[in-house]
């Protein structure tokens, strides 16, 4: 064994303790550190030859890279829809690396059963029934890709084409209908060979909405009667967290034949709150569902889950035919259900957080996030230099400058917020108007944090 590697092995407890001490210092200072990196890094170092050992690597990281990492795990990082990582989830994530389980197959480990248990808990959390099976994937993009891949196989079933064997070309054109699809949908369509141009946008409800007009969707389905299509419904759009009427869309399946995929990346968590659970009424009727867990579940990146009613078609798409991996008979190993053969135990941080805080703890995070978004929205609405672009429907505040919201001026506002070190928000365009989004999903965020964000917005928008 290499001398340095052997030395690290002999003092592994001390090395892990040093890493733990660095992590504790960073986490304890997270609330007050700059939310965004102060500037670009200094450059790139050459590849080490001899190696500095674990302690040396830790010291170099702490000196050279850690100061430029964002405070994305902290309470005032409101960009994208980014959760932090609950204490229990961090513990689970560290143990994921320590145990280093290979989730390709059972492999003499109980790890697969832990993932199956976690999937069942999540299915229950989001109000899905036993007909839905699921698996962990890297994020919403991969979850949407898996859902559309199963939908593509379903379309082949309807046309008596085995897409997994004959290819997407044998299927012919397959259209995807949606009102306000996330950008990952067209990315998935490209990856799956459906083609980005096969997306057909359906008119939205009037009145500054991002929800699809169900009557317009029915008309689009009627035009395509006799040809299978995929419908992507949205449970929580990125700009304004608008929800399609899932129950009404599902009812259309009585008259039209289509695959219903619901992108519920973070909107599925509305199911935890009695006040908002009606927004996801009908989710259980979906053929496939996407939920991103490193958002509102507050587990570390990267973690999401996908659900489907057609595991048989999922296996047809993703099974891996190799004697040493085994077949997909019975309860298939996860390598037969997702694109990756090599899979880390992403379920463990989620399992830890669910065991530690339960349904009630995660409900509190959701409801507090919504309350804080409303608080910021009311504050933005009262500022003379800003205006809301849409009502605060759940956990995202979409706003812009009150006067001359040009792309340049809105970008300058975003830079000023980031450079203050107090907060971070991300740009968007809503209704043709450049704006900013502040998304609340971090378990740490408090009313005091929200007021600090409001103060920096007030100063930057003058």
Question: Would you kindly provide a written description of the structure presented here, covering whatever features stand out?
Answer:
- With 462 residues, this protein is α/β, with parallel strands linked by helices.
- The protein has a domain at 91-352: Type I PLP-dependent aspartate aminotransferase-like (Major domain) (Aspartate Aminotransferase, domain 2, 3-Layer(aba) Sandwich), CATH 3.40.640.10.
- Helix content is 41%, strand content 12%.
- Strands 1-7-6-5-4-2-3 form a seven-stranded mixed sheet, with helices on both faces. It has a four-stranded antiparallel sheet with strand order 8-9-11-10.
- α4 (87-99) runs antiparallel to α13 (347-382), α5 (111-125) packs parallel to α13 and α6 (140-158) crosses α12.
- This is L-2,4-diaminobutyrate decarboxylase.
- Its cofactor is pyridoxal 5'-phosphate.
Attribute tags:
single chain; 462 residues; alpha/beta; Aspartate Aminotransferase, domain 2; seven-stranded mixed beta sheet; four-stranded antiparallel beta sheet; 11 strands; EC 4.1.1.86; PyrdxlP-dep_de-COase; diaminobutyrate decarboxylase activity; pyridoxal phosphate; decarboxylase
């Amino acid at each position: 064994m290499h001398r340095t590697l052997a030395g690290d092995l002999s003092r592994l407890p001390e090395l892990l303790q040093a890493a733990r001490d660095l992590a504790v210092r960073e986490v304890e200072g997270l609330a007050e550190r700059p939310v965004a990196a102060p500037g670009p890094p200094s450059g790139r170092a050459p590849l080490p030859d001899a190696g500095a050992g674990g302690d040396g690597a830790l010291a170099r990281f702490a000196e050279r890279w850690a100061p430029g990492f964002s405070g994305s795990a902290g309470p005032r990082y409101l960009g994208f829809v980014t959760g932090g990582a609950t204490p229990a989830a961090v513990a689970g994530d560290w143990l994921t690396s320590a145990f280093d389980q290979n989730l390709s197959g059972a492999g003499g480990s109980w790890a697969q059963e832990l993932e199956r248990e976690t999937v069942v808990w999540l299915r229950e959390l989001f109000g899905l029934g036993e007909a839905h099976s699921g698996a962990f994937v890297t994020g919403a993009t991969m979850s949407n890709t898996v859902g559309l891949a199963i939908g593509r196989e379903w379309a082949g079933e309807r046309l008596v084409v085995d897409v997994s064997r004959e290819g997407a070309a044998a299927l012919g054109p397959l259209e995807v209908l949606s009102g306000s699809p996330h950008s990952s949908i067209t990315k998935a369509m490209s990856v799956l060979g459906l083609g980005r141009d096969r997306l057909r946008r359906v008119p939205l409800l009037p009145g500054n909405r991002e929800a699809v007009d169900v009557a317009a969707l029915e008309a689009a389905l009627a035009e395509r009667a006799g040809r299978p299509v995929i419908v992507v419904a949205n449970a929580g759009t990125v700009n304004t967290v608008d929800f399609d009427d899932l129950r009404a869309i599902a009812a259309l399946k009585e008259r039209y034949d289509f695959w219903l995929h619901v992108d519920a990346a973070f909107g599925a968590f509305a199911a935890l709150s009695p006040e908002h659970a009606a927004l996801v009424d009908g989710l259980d009727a979906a053929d496939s569902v996407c939920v991103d867990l490193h958002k509102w579940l507050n587990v570390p990146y990267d973690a999401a889950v996908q659900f489907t009613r057609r595991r048989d078609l999922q296996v047809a798409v993703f099974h891996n035919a190799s004697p040493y991996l085994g077949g997909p008979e019975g309860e298939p190993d996860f390598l037969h259900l997702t694109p990756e053969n090599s899979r880390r135990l992403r379920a463990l941080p989620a399992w830890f957080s669910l065991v530690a805080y339960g349904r009630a703890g995660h409900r509190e995070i959701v409801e507090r996030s919504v309350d804080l978004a409303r608080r910021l929205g009311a504050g933005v609405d009262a500022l003379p230099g800003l205006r809301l672009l849409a009502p605060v429907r759940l956990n995202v505040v979409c706003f812009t400058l009150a006067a001359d919201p040009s792309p340049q001026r809105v970008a300058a506002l975003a830079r000023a917020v980031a450079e203050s070190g107090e907060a971070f928000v991300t740009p968007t365009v809503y209704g043709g108007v450049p704006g900013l989004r502040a998304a609340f999903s971090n378990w740490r965020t408090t009313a005091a944090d929200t007021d600090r964000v409001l103060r920096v917005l007030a100063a930057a928008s003058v």
